[in-house]
Write a structure and sequence with these properties.
single chain, about 260 residues, alpha+beta, Double-stranded beta-helix, six-stranded antiparallel sheet, 5 helices, globular
Length: about 260
């Protein structure tokens, strides 16, 4: 199914929202609970599946719902359709401080692999699925586990990430990244994990026990402030403790001792 061609505009700096303009009969799909406002004539309805394959039937849609349940996302996607005769707009807000990243899937090769909570909304026709990481090490220690989101299509998709987002192009190169800082990458990039240096660095470095390794040729998108890091800092301040690094063993030990 060819994706609908939607126009859009992104507002804000660190607390962004995207306003999507819908022509008559155009549809945009979004994660449940992300809608900010909707103009008249735009009908919205929660449905099973993304609608990319309308003839797949009940069991096909149920399979999609099952996959979404595995990722921890809402079981339904909300479909916003302009039923009027004029252009109308609907806006979607980011769930926490960061950036909304618009990507034209046609220009990105038709497919992106992203962290499981990155998807915000997309033009109708975009297939929102999941991808299982086949490598045991990356699955156990890669931050996102075995499950990543798989976005396919030829239209605009909008991802959300924490802090500042930077795209980097790898030309048969290797990039080592904190496991929580990966937003998305093209399928031509291989994803694995490796130890964060020697034993001393792993225990005292504060950079976590493992780093993600991205290798190949293609684009990757990285975020400066993963939500897990933000929430850890907030919780540590609430409890009156100070984090020594999200992956530091000493950080965890100091929390235990300060709590006694």
């Amino acid at each position: 199914m060819q994706s609908h061609e939607v126009d859009y505009q992104i507002y804000g700096d660190d607390l962004q929202f995207v306003e999507v303009e819908l022509d008559p009969s155009e549809t945009v799909i979004a994660e449940a609970g992300t809608m900010m406002y909707v103009e008249q004539d735009v009908n919205f309805e929660s449905k099973m599946g993304d609608g990319a394959t309308p003839d797949e039937g009940f069991w096909g849609k149920a399979k999609q719902v099952g996959k979404r349940a595995v990722t921890g996302e809402s079981l339904f996607l909300t479909h916003f359709t302009n039923l009027g005769m004029q252009k109308r707009r609907v806006a979607f807000a980011a769930p926490y401080p960061g950036k909304i990243v618009p990507i034209d899937l046609a220009q990105a090769g038709g497919r992106l692999i992203c962290q499981k909570d990155a998807f915000l909304c997309a033009a109708m026709g975009t297939k929102v699925g999941i991808a299982f990481n086949k490598k045991l090490g990356a699955g156990l220690f890669g931050g996102e586990g075995f499950i990543l989101q798989d976005l396919q299509g030829d239209g605009n998709v909008f991802m959300h990430a924490g802090g500042t987002v930077i795209p980097k192009y790898l030309d048969n190169e290797t990039l080592r990244v904190d496991t929580g800082c990966i937003v998305a990458f093209q399928p031509s990039i291989s994803y694995d994990i490796q130890r964060a240096g020697n034993l001393k660095s792993m225990v005292f470095g504060g950079e976590g026990l493992f780093l993600a390794t991205l290798h190949g040729t293609g684009w990757v998108w990285l975020q400066s402030l993963p939500f897990s890091r933000l929430s850890d800092r907030v919780l540590s301040n609430i409890s009156g403790t100070k984090s020594d690094g999200e992956g530091s063993v000493l950080g965890g030990l100091s929390t235990l001792f300060e709590g006694n």
